[in-house]
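Team,

Forwarding the record for the chain on the shared tracking sheet. I've put the sequence and predicted structure together so nobody has to dig through attachments.
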Amino acid sequence: MVSIAKRNEPLEARVYGGNSVVLTPVEARERISLRAEDKAIAGLGKALGLSLPKKPGTSVTKNDISALWIGPDEWLILGGEGSDLEARLNKVKTGLYSAVAVNHRNTAITVSGANVVNALNGGCPRDLSLAAFPIGNCGRTIIGKAEVVLWRLSQDSFHVECWRSFSDYVWKYLVDSARSA
């Protein structure tokens, strides 16, 4: 009999709702930190079933897979449990690239509600207005003193991707910020 360990999510069973802000832990996901040269981009996109975004701060989602442009040659790839992102990318033989699974390093929080921008801006210096940070926009920033990847899902909903070791800090910071937003 083979046993497979279940990954414990660091924020599992937490919930916050108040002052028109809701914080929800994101369910377990597959995550890949992808670095690639131009010659590899088309093949990697084909393996994932989408076109990797090439414009700064943009994202692409198709089916259960999302690609977030993080830097000139860097993407954060998110997929549902069982999407086997690593195996898909390892089949690509064109160009130089690095695909590193960061499933156990990262976790995420969905922050939503009518007061979400004020809550996030309590610890994030970016301009999160719709004009400056439209739906689908993403990028590295900070919440308090923790580095995060922030991704706007809708007018009043954001995905906050952070390292598991900082997740308790980020959660508590966002709760405090939401209470005073």
